């Protein structure tokens, strides 16, 4: 591809209505394009507030991505800072962070000239120029700290080669070009030095609630920890509230990250300990250490949770998270996940979470409710599945009994599975008709579990149903994966944050064990196999001994879609609401939500498939 | 929508590279458009050979559609003759011929001006202008016989509101506008006078084989029949070959339609009778008459078949269909399906089929082989299903035994189901990997079963597998539909025409009856139901007594996808090839054919969403 000039102009005549229309549309587009370009390049630099979200892409902090989301335009504007540019860079997205079948913006140099283009990688990692250019370059700027690239991408491009930017997790990928490149086709991404970063690109567009005047702050931070020189560390630190600390409402919290460690602090949580014990020992060390006091396992009530890429978390104006006061433990546990795959040594860290709280209690206490599946082995996933789904129900009968007549308001949600989880979605259903999605993540990763503010608060009334479906991948496993607490067992949970707080803490289900027993019997008879159905054999053992084939798999699927359920409609994990909760009918859905058909970009619209030449001079200064 | 002028022109300057590109692309497009327009309008009329395929749309013959297919352009060109235009016309396509959710070209008049546009109807029949105009008007021309409209449509437009034109049956629909219309939105198609016509739009692009010099013709036609004044008549007429007529090869055949009856003659077939009887009685009357001799049921060997919209049928140069000579019956049965829903009275008809045959035998006899499912009740469809599939197999073991080492060549195919059939597809698989589609009709209708030439001849070798899948709709039924000969029972058959002829006449399968028995047992135990499994109860009775729910349905589906099969690898319907054909393993597929991703039109490309004004004068001359 030769270099092109872009400023020639010669007269022509517009021959018809349609050309005039095309032309006028095009002028609008060029105008919009120029305005953005000017905004971006006029001042010395774009203001930080133009790109409120920021995340490091690599572990050395050489690549820094900031972005903003325009819901009216249905587009994301990216600002990528490249601190040490070599011969170019790939940046893009793929379903689960693989370099193959990815959608990529590419900046490349042949040693003399630089180009920018929209490309995609095939199943073998080979790059191809996209026939429709949907990463739109808005500007490029040299600054002392590095090169800034500004570009735009519509959520949905209707190009089948493009990634569809959806709510929830997006797997961002980057790759470094270390040699001059003469054409895009010369690049195989699988061979590049690069990496992956998970973020929630489509941050909800919510206004910040008004904060109380008497707001105070409290930092729960690690006391100058030396980050262990190993890939993964969960660090535990015990903090405590002052004696006699009365009831307060947490109204917001934000991360406190030690400068320089932005790429190492993966996620952090503050847990409150149970009030069942009067005191908890001090501790400051790895969570999996043999030295860790066993009692720390009783500190599991989430007060705050942050993950990389997340910002401050605000409670709605009507509610706050209660802490302090009688019946509440003074003891807090800070847990930090350090992700250190380059095994840096001797890095010191004092990161943590800053709580903003008030003594002027808001009208409502916020609560957390667990939706999804009971932690029981009766819910199992056959081995070798690429996307097997399990569904947990919060039934109309339970919400009828436990929710106040005015309903509750869900404002945030944290999705949770173990390692096989690939997608989680909770849908609200009323009278058998699906009403709205509470929270959905089609690219969910168990390595990126953040509390997410919902785009809109969801009102749930008595008689409503909340249906949570998790999708699992067990292609790398040779035996069934059963439900349970173990890391190789599975969970399907949505922790929803809501107000006003109710007694309902758990609204989850599992298949009726009697029907599961019939299934084991059926598999036994149908396949002429000897599966021991003796009562002394546990459910996991029975699952492990099933000879998996399409029939046994399909029938298990059918069983989960048909058999009655056992409900946990509980005040706490041990105390059920009164009522009959066994052999409950499966909620039936008569009307499903329709998949939103992606909006295609009307304008500026995609650009022709030619690389855009850039005036950057030589990229690498050797 | 106001009227627009289309010939103004004013100077402008082209400001950038991209506009120049857009403009140049546009000029190419306009040029192509003008050329077509000129071709279409220059002579007094387009030549008939420009539009080789023709079909009446309505039953009075007021609307006549001709078309051609351009595979290089991936587009269909339509010429629609409207003999008595009122205030406009709708023409389009929908999945199964419904007026709702249809893709329509609309010609409408407000009483003064006329417009043409691409529209779609929603689930309620309401018309909407399409945001992407994919029916492209190429010209309109008044002639003594009526108004000709010429327009073009790409097979695939990538507009989700548009119908994807695929191989196989296309349901064309039309509607008449009997009053002036002020805007598209004022039209509700469900209320219009209109109708449906099924055609194979994408005729294969095959060259006509060379015909022998000594070719003779023979017409098998109805002897001046008075078409009964009832909607549906199957007419039977017995013809016979001369005594001592030696073996010949049929090399082609074509329809002979009495002028004026083009819309009434729905389909015709010529069958040869069995050689088991020396003579057959004469007959000329309805096929379902009590007077019809029972022996006519032994005339079932297809010699020729034609359906509305089909053209002449040619055998490949290497092969012909044998008839005449020893071991072959002299008696032929012509069957004509008259479709007369307007119950015209006293229409006389002498339609039929003209056979072209030669005494100079070609290298190979052509043969017909039955693929799909055995006619047995063990293959059943639950009630209330919108698309339940059943699959019949021709296994590697059978083709290994029965096909010659050089293989056979399939050149034509006729798909067959009873009334619940909605789609049929046969795929060729080799070593577990799907190789190619033999014939597919995703919009199959049991009312439109024609013999279709394949786009390309398919070579099948010993060890190959032929897998035929039928999709059924039983939403209007309350009990199971079992396999069988009855009109309310089902079949799944692909009659493939091939050469050289082999002994293999039937290569079909059904689920192993023992496994079906286990299924009945399982349903019984699992559902606590009393289904009589006594041996004296027939398989249909057992199916009829199943309490259908999602579990019983899903498990039946799983059974058909898992259980071993019983193979019919037969020389004739009663004589099997030697070998073990019971409890055969299901062919496994390790690599599926990928769905072809539809090509979007690169150019001329869609036009902006404005109606095109036409200079037709007032449409209706009252």
TrEMBL record, chains A, B:
Location of the DOMON domain: 61-177
Keywords: Catecholamine biosynthesis, Copper, Cytoplasmic vesicle, Disulfide bond, Glycoprotein, Membrane, Metal-binding, Monooxygenase, Oxidoreductase, Signal-anchor, Transmembrane, Transmembrane helix, Vitamin C
Main location: cytoplasm
Pfam families in alphabetical order: Cu2_monoox_C, Cu2_monooxygen, DOMON
Class in the EC hierarchy, top level: oxidoreductase
Biased composition (Pro residues): 598-611
Pathway, per record: Catecholamine biosynthesis; (R)-noradrenaline biosynthesis; (R)-noradrenaline from dopamine: step 1/1
Protein's name in the database: Dopamine beta-hydroxylase
Native source organism of the sequence: Prunella fulvescens
Name of the gene: Dbh
């Amino acid at each position: 591809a030769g270099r092109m000039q872009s400023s020639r102009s010669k007269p022509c005549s517009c021959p018809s209505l349609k050309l005039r229309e095309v032309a006028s549309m095009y002028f609008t587009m060029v105008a919009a394009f120029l305005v953005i370009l000017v905004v971006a390049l006029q001042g010395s630099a774009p203001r930080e507030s133009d790109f409120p979200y920021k995340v490091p892409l690599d572990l050395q902090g050489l690549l820094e991505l900031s972005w903003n989301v325009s819901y009216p335009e249905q587009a994301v504007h990216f600002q990528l800072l490249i601190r040490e540019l070599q011969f170019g860079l790939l940046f893009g997205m793929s379903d689960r962070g693989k370099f193959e079948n990815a959608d990529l913006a590419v900046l490349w140099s042949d040693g003399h000239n630089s180009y920018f283009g929209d490309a995609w990688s095939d199943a073998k990692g080979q790059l191809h120029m996209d026939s429709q250019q949907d990463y739109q370059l808005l500007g490029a700027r040299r600054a002392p700290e590095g090169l800034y690239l500004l570009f735009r991408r519509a959520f949905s491009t209707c190009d089948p080669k493009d990634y569809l930017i959806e709510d929830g997790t997006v797997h961002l990928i980057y790759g470094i070009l270390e040699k001059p490149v003469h054409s895009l086709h010369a690049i195989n991404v699988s061979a590049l030095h690069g990496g992956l970063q998970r973020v929630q690109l489509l941050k909800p567009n919510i206004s910040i609630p008004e904060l109380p005047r008497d707001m105070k702050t409290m930092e729960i931070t690690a006391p100058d920890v030396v980050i262990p020189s190993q890939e993964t560390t969960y660090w535990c630190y015990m903090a405590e509230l002052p004696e006699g600390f009365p009831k307060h409402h947490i109204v917001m919290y934000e991360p406190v990250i030690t400068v320089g460690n932005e790429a190492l602090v993966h996620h952090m949580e503050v847990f409150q300990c149970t009030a069942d014990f009067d005191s908890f020992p001090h501790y400051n060390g790895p969570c999996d250490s043999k030295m860790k006091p066993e009692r720390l396992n009783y500190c599991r009530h989430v007060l705050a949770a942050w993950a990389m890429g997340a910002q401050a978390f605000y409670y709605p104006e009507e509610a706050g998270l209660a802490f302090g006061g009688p019946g509440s433990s003074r003891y807090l546990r800070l847990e930090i996940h350090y992700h250190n795959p380059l095994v840096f040594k001797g890095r010191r860290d004092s990161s943590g979470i800053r709580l903003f709280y008030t003594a002027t209690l808001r009208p409502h206490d916020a609560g957390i409710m667990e939706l999804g599946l009971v932690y029981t082995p009766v819910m199992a996933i056959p081995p070798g599945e690429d996307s097997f789904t399990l569904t947990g129900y919060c039934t109309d009968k339970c919400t009828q009994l436990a929710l106040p007549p005015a309903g509750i308001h869900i404002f945030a949600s944290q999705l949770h599975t173990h390692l096989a989880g690939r997608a989680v979605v909770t849908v609200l259903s009323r009278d058998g008709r699906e009403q709205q999605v509470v929270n959905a993540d089609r690219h969910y990763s168990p390595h990126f579990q953040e509390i997410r503010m919902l785009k809109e608060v969801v009102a749930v009334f008595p008689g409503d149903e909340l249906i949570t479906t998790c999708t699992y991948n067990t292609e790398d496993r040779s035996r069934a994966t059963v439900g349970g607490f173990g890391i190789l067992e599975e969970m399907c949970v949505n922790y929803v944050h809501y107000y006003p707080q109710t007694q309902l803490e758990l609204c989850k289900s599992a298949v009726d064990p009697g029907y599961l027993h019939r299934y084991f019997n059926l598999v036994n008879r149908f396949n002429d196999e000897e599966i021991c159905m003796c009562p002394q054999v546990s459910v996991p053992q029975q699952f492990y001994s099933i000879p998996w084939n399409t029939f046994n798999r399909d029938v298990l699927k059918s069983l989960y879609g048909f058999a009655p359920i056992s409900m946990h409609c509980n005040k706490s994990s041990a105390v059920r609401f009164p009522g009959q909760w066994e052999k409950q009918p499966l909620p039936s859905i008569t009307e499903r939500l329709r998949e939103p058909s992606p909006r295609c970009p009307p304008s500026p619209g995609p650009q022709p498939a030619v690389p855009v030449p850039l005036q950057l001079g030589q990229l690498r200064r050797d």
